[in-house]
């Protein structure tokens, strides 16, 4: 059982993250928002390649069927065992040119609403519909 050490690690780690971890309906230990250890992910793929059905893999490794499906699906699409990206920031859309135009519009007409500025940026082709700053960003 090469994955046994991974479960011990998760159990110990979950003590330091109260409220974030737990035991799933199969008795497996997990931590919310954290990927399964690499050795467990690898074992899931190995068992699937040996013809073991996902529901049996789920029971053997005490990992939910949904998690098994997600890992196998990603592996079949990408060939990778790596977990998906977590969080990360969105690309910044308020470039210096966009900020400059927002300031010009606000200076020229201080009572202009943010949604009007938003629409104007698109209309004037300063931004396209996909990269225009949000109304809350414009208000800042």
From TrEMBL:
UniProt GO BP: anterior/posterior pattern specification; camera-type eye morphogenesis; hindbrain development; nervous system development; regulation of transcription by RNA polymerase II; sensory organ development
Paired domain span: 19-140
Cell location: Nucleus
Pfam hit, one: PAX
UniProt cross-references to InterPro entries, sorted A to Z: Homeodomain-like_sf, Paired_dom, PAX_fam, WH-like_DNA-bd_sf
This protein's record includes keyword Transcription: yes
GO terms for cellular component: nucleus
Main localization (coarse): nucleus
UniProt keyword terms in alphabetical order: Developmental protein, DNA-binding, Nucleus, Paired box, Transcription, Transcription regulation
Record's keyword annotation contains Cell wall biogenesis/degradation: no
GO molecular function, one term: RNA polymerase II cis-regulatory region sequence-specific DNA binding
Protein's name according to its UniProt entry: Paired domain-containing protein
């Amino acid at each position: 059982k090469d994955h046994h050490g991974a479960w011990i690690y998760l159990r110990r780690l979950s003590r330091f993250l109260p409220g974030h971890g737990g035991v799933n309906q199969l008795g497996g230990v997990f931590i919310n928002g954290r990927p399964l250890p690499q050795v467990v992910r690898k074992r899931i793929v190995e068992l699937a390649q040996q013809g073991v059905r996902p529901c049996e893999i789920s029971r053997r490794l005490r990992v939910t069927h949904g998690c098994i499906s997600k890992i196998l699906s990603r592996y079949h699409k990408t060939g990778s065992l790596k977990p998906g990206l977590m969080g990360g920031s969105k690309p910044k859309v308020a470039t210096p040119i966009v900020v400059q135009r927002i300031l010009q519009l606000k200076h020229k007409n201080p009572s202009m609403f943010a949604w009007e500025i938003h629409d104007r940026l698109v209309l004037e082709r300063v931004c396209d519909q996909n990269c225009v700053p949000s109304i809350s960003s414009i208000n800042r």
